[in-house]
Amino acid sequence: xxxxxxxxxxxxxxxxxxxxxxxxxxxxxxxxxxxxxxxxxxxxxxxxxxxxxxxxxxxxxxxxxxxxxxxxxxxxxxxxxxxxxxxxxxxxxxxxxxxxxxxxxxxxxxxxxxxxxxxxxxxxxxxxxxxxxxxxxxxxxxxxxxxxxxxxxxxxxxxxxxxxxxxxxxxxxxxxxxxxxxxxxxxxxxxxxxxxxxxxxxxxxxxxxxxxxxxxxxxxxxxxxxxxxxxxxxxxxxxxxxxxxxxxxxxxxxxxxxxxxxxxxxxxxxxxxxxxxxxxxxxxxxxxxxxxxxxxxxxxxxxxxxxxxxxxxxxxxxxxxxxxxxxxxxxxxxxxxxxxxxxxxxxxxxxxxxxxxxxxxxxxxxxxxxxxxxxxxxxxxxxxxxxxxxx
Length: 391
Ligand SMILES: Cc1ncc(COP(=O)(O)O)c(C=O)c1O
Fold this sequence. Notes:
13 strands
């Protein structure tokens, strides 16, 4: 197929997942720098309070990433060697690695091809004598079937850890994702719905779990470093656990605090773009995301289309390349976990073991959806996709 003129001049490449940073964040970061307080301090404490309140959770613990949040949650849940944790094959490697770093074994249950979330019926089939936990991912921001998964956890006495990296705005009957399980883990990575540059948060149901997470996030020390150096006078710390350097800095919280205020406005903006895409792509050889289930709120984090390669004029990978040449950044969420050599070699996993996730991973393309996209940016995405696929 002949290449048309690029829809955007080369200097205006539309970066996939570009964050929106406003003046308030810049001023807050500068104020932190000038205050001399860069590390974990009062802004992190405020960010924990504000984020916990916006998600209706009483215990929120800020950490350096969602990866750290997932790892610590595994440990605080008491999951370790000899245990199995059931999770989805359609996720970022961090989900799987958190289970491995805790010394446990991940067990994959295939996804529902419509929702792209882990299928409770497949989860039920994978539960065995060593199963200790369930780690669902609210894929793209669409809530998992929490009623069915919660029921399985109750029946089999499993810890429930929710991967909410995509799910800040996700609700089921008004209840926020991350509050169904024992732990809910969020990401503030640069491409997420709100960002700290890097950052993560754990919502914990029990106060004692939150306290353990805090200790584990900072070397296993019994007191926060910022309390040690505050004007309250020197406080000795004691190492009470084998911890990690997983704390969030005030510099990161300085960004996140202001992003928090815009969650709703940005969600509404993404919804506008989402609807325009749905309309613009309806006649193309691709499947647009399924509508949200009744009574739920989709966080609208990723707009993932599935290319119909039997009708499309080119392969998925060729489409990715063409979009890039048209100056539009794209993503793939995700190649199924069993496609990766490390897991194949370690566990003998094969792509055909989780056929729905594998099929999605080989056909999917994520299009730009950031709240900072202008109408013209969205038009450019639409023009590029239609120019390539409409024939
Ligand atoms: C589903 C999922 N889980 C976990 C993570 C890890 O998040 P972080 O980069 O904050 O460690 C990501 C990040 O992209 C993700 O998409």
